[in-house]
Amino acid sequence: MLELEGARKTYPGVRALQGVDLGVERGEVHALLGENGAGKSTLMKVVAGAVTPDAGQMTVGGSPVALGSLEAARASGVALVYQDLSLVPQLSVGENVLLGRWATTRWGTVAWEELHAAARRHLGRIGLDVDPRRRVDELGMAERQLVEIAKALSGDVHVLLLDEPTSALSDPEARRLFGIVRDLTASGVAVVYVSHRLPEVLDIADRISVLRDGQLVATVRAAEVDEARLARMMVGRALGGAAAPAPPPAGNGAPAALRARGLARPPRLKPVDLELRAGEVVAVFGLVGSGRTRLARTLFGLEPATGGTLEVAGRPVSVRAPADAIALGIGYLGEDRAAGIVPRMTLAENITLASLPRLGRGPLLATGQERQLARRFADELGIRAPLDRWAETLSGGNQQKLVLARWLCSGARVLVLDDPTRGIDVGAKEEVFRLVRRLAGDGAAILYLTSETREARELADRVLVMAGGRIVRSVDPDAPEEEMMAAAGGVHG
Question: N or C end: fewer C-beta atoms under 10 angstroms in the chain?
Fold first, then answer.
C-alpha cells in the first residue's frame, strides 16, 4: 500500500533522514521505533507531505505521489495524526473534525446542524462523548488527542500515520484506539504506528522498523522480538533497567514542603486535601477527565484556586499566577510540552528562563554564565544539541526534557510533573526516572501525575487515585493494578 524509497532530509547541522526505505502492506500495522531525534517524526511528515525531502520517491497503492505536497498526500488517502496535534484551539470540536470540508447551505453559509451531526458520527466512532459545539481549547490533552484521531478518520483513508497516538491517553482509551486500528486494518487500511511504549507496540504491530540517527537499522516481525531486544536496537546498547534504585521513602518526620486543604476550582476540581513531604515522590493516578491535570494547573497558578488553602514550607501562601509559584520554588511541567517552551528562543535561553535573577546584576545578563548553567543541565538530561539552536527545532522528546531542565536549573524544591514521560523514548524515560529519584533523594518534593499505573507503581512512595475531580483513595505502590484501575473508574468501596 505504501512504498517510500531513498528518503533524505538535512536540516542545518542535522541529517534527519539518510536514505530511508519504508514499505507497508495493505492491512498491516507497521510500527516505527527509535530514540528522540532518530528521524521518526520527520519520516512521517515526509509521507504526509508536510515536509519536502531532499531526495526520495513514494507510491500509495502503486500510484506515484508527489512528495512535499499535503494536498497530493491527502488525495492519495494518507492521513497523519500529529504527535503535537494540528487542531485550531479557537474553533469548535466539530469545525476541527471536518476542517476544510464544512457542509454549506444553498446560500453559501455553514450548515451547522449537518456539520455537527457528521462530527458526532466521527466522534462516536472512537467513543468520544463530547459536544461538537465545544471549543477545542476547553478540552484536556487526552480529549484533544481523540479529536485529532477523529479528524484523521473523517476522510477516505488508505494509509493512516499515528505519531504517538496514545501518549495522552489512559489505558482504557488506548485499548479503544487499538480496537479502531484493528477494524481499519481488517478493511485493508495500512497503519504506520509510532510509539515509545514498547508493550503496546508488541501488542498492536505486525512488523517493526527501527531508526537510529536517521538510518533504518532493522525491520523485524513483532512476534520474533521482545522489549529488551527492541530497546537495544533503538539505543545501540543494553539499558540498565527502568531506573536507579528508589531512595528510602520520606519518613513521617520529614517537613511538609506543600500542604493543600480543600483546594478547589469547581466544577472540574472538587475540594482536595494533599500533602507533599521533602524527599517524597507522590504519584497521582487518574484516567481522562479525572481532574489530575486541573490539580496540577491550580497548584502552579495557571487556573487559580477558588477555594481552600495552600501552605509552602509551613507558611500560608496564595498562588494566583505562575510567577507566584516560581517565587515560592514550585516548578511545573505540563502535559502539553509545546506550551512549555518558547519556540523562537535558544535552548540556553529556555533552560535559564526561570533563573534569570541569578544570571547577572540589574538589567544586564551574564551570557557566559547563562551558557555554562544551561550546558550543565542540558548534559545532565542528555539533550544533545547546540545551545544556540531554537527550541522549536528539537524533537518532541527533547522539548520535554528541555522544560524539565528549566526547573532543575531553577532549583525548585517542589516539582509538579504532569505526565513528564509523554512521548519520549525508553532511554530518555530511564533518564527522567533517575532524575526524579535523585531529586527526591536530594530533598525535593515531587508530585508526579500520570495515567499509567506502571509509572505510578514504579516511582512513587505513595499513590493517590483521582476520579471525578477528587482524590478518592490513597494506595500503596505495591497494591494490585486492578485496585488502582477500579478506584480510578469509580469503584471506591
Answer: C
pLDDT of residue 284 exceeding 90:
yes
**Total-model pTM:** 0.60
Q: Report the candidate in 117, 172, 135, 163 with the shortest Cα–Cα distance to residue 288.
A: 172
The per-residue pLDDT for range 46-105, each reduced to its tens digit, is 999 999 999 999 999 999 999 999 899 989 999 888 766 778 989 999 999 998 889 888
Instruction: Give 70: exposed, middle or buried? Use CB within 10 Å, 0-12, 13-18, 19+.
Output: middle
249 located within any domain:
no
First to last CA, the chain: 51
pLDDT tens for 6-55 read 999 987 667 889 999 999 999 999 999 887 678 888 899 999 999 999 99
The CATH number of whichever domain residue 214 belongs to comes to 3.40.50.300
| C-beta of residue 356 within 8 angstroms of C-beta of residue 408 | no
Whether residue 167 sits in one domain with residue 107: yes
pLDDT in tens, 225-262: 988 888 788 777 554 444 444 444 444 556 789 999 99
Give CA separation, 203 vs 41, 188, 193, in Å. 21, 19, 12
Spatial separation of the C-alpha atoms in residues 259 and 316, rounded to whole Å? 9
Looking at residue 281, what is its pLDDT? Answer: 94
Is it true that the peptide bond before 267 is cis, omega within 30 degrees of 0? yes
Determine the Cα angle at 383 with ends 378 and 387, to 5°: 65
CA distances from 57 to 11, 23, 162, 228 (A): 19, 12, 21, 34
- Which residue stretches of 18-170 are H helix? 40-48, 70-75, 93-97, 112-125, 141-153
Q: Domain range for residue 81? A: 2-235
Pairing of strands 207-212, 29-33: parallel
In a domain, 242, yes or no: no
Give the closest residue to 159 by CA, choosing from 36, 243, 62.
Answer: 62
d(CA 328, CA 399): 25
Q: Which of 232, 209, 196 is nearest to 429 (CA)?
A: 196
Q: In whole angstroms, what is the distance from residue 205 CA to residue 95 CA?
A: 32
Q: Count H helices, E strands: the chain? A: 16, 20
Q: Where are the alpha helices (DSSP H) in 206-336?
A: 227-235, 292-299, 322-327
Nearest CA-CA partner of 260 in 424, 476, 416: 416
